[in-house]
């Protein structure tokens, strides 16, 4: 059985998908972006907003960043890796999740970063 997770405290889906799906004890969170900061040159603010969106969805499901076991980071430019890594890392004080980071040709709304996660209760 699956349960759709939705919060007003994160961007509404822009297509036929859910913000997150809880299946058993596992939460699959769709890639989050900071569309409102897409044209900003403040990449740190954009990454922080993405992480906050993820946190709001996790909270709606009764979880936190500590529940994340896997994340995927998609970057428009791999040259931004260190900056994104700094912001991302600030949300994990210990035992960070498994992760991959890849550069992609383009992201929705022309943002610089998109992050999806899998969390377990």
Automatic annotation (TrEMBL):
It comes from the Bacteria. The keyword Hydrolase applies. GO terms for molecular function: 2-iminobutanoate/2-iminopropanoate deaminase. CDD domains: YjgF_YER057c_UK114_family (cd00448). It is an enzyme of class 3 (hydrolase). Keywords: Hydrolase. Its EC number is 3.5.99.10. It holds the Pfam family Ribonuc_L-PSP. The keyword Membrane does not apply. InterPro entries: RidA (IPR006056), RutC-like_sf (IPR035959), YjgF/YER057c/UK114 (IPR006175). PANTHER family: 2-IMINOBUTANOATE/2-IMINOPROPANOATE DEAMINASE RIDA, 2-IMINOBUTANOATE_2-IMINOPROPANOATE DEAMINASE. Belongs to the RutC family. This is 2-iminobutanoate/2-iminopropanoate deaminase. The lineage of its organism: Bacteria, Pseudomonadati, Bacteroidota, Cytophagia, Cytophagales.
